[in-house]
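Readers outside the structure-tokenisation community will struggle with the description of the input data as it stands. I therefore recommend that a typical entry be quoted early in the introduction. An entry of this sort, consisting of the sequence and the corresponding backbone structure tokens, reads as follows:
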Amino acid sequence: MMGLSSHWLADAAAGLANDMSDASFWMPTQASDQASRVDSLFDFILWLSVFFFVVLMAATVRFAWKYRQKSPNQRTSPVKHNFKIEFLWSAVPTVLLVVIFAWGFNDFTALSATPSNALNLRVVAKQWAWTVSYPQLDRECTPTIDPVSGTQATTFYLPANQPFTVQLSSDDVLHSFWIPAFRVKKDAVPNRYTGFTVTPTVPGSYHLFCAEYCGTNHSRMEGTVEVLNAEDWAKFLSKEDERCKLDLKAPNYGEKLFAKYGCAGCHSVTEDRATVVGPGLYGLPGREESTSAGKVVADDDYLRESIVYASKKIVSGFEGKQMPSFEGRLSEQEIGALIDYIKGLDGHENDGGPTNDDKNE
């Protein structure tokens, strides 16, 4: 056991050393467009705190000395309030907090904006490994197991200077997807999607961690992000490159699942949206639907919920027609493949983007 631990620690130390190779005193390497924004805000808060700490400590020492009791009979002078000072020590911190909030909120919203040229990634967390798939590329990076340490490490690939959008979900418990060099961290939550968009800027290898305790082997749930230059990314996309390749069923995997589970017996997928038993699925994504729970927009979360918990939001006109629940029967990869298939029925490109609906976080 001691040997396994030391082996894992050595690997982790080597990975962190790589992440810190071009690091500042406080932070690891800046390897994304988000990194400089986060570091600037961090530095502002740090030096603002240092400034006020020095000012307050100096004032404390000065006043403690100046107003010390100089004789046993000395009495404290009557204390009167000073409106200007009291106003300033309330107003100045308030203004600074508003500045920090606005600065942080602006950086946060940048993670939610998805450019049209973003590469889409679907990341599924499961004790204790990551699976990263590329819906647009029919590739999937799965974990490999170190025979010595037992660590399940996933390596996935990104092009430099192109934004990528991550759609996160979890097969079991709460996880957190953290790439320190990118300054991004987002929870992977069971039964919902979260996500972010960021642009890697520096080619290299960067560590991926789970930042939320998720069970016994939490510390071994890691991975590597390989940011490639244009030439290496073109090689990765070539047919000859074997990295993260899926088997031949991948391009129509969602369609095969749709047939496997008998979905076509109840839902039409043709442009005429003919009613079989349940509502037609052609052109559904993005459409507003009237349901038993009111009007909803058919986004990824709605599609997922309708697959897993079919009776939660029944489409108007189909009351009394019971679709079987697929809770516990489908993996996150299978749910994602079915959603991609439904979104591609009308010929639109899969966007696979995150919902960024973090109201419950």
Q: What stands out?
A: The first strand starts at residue 119 and ends at 126. The first helix runs from residue 2 to 19.
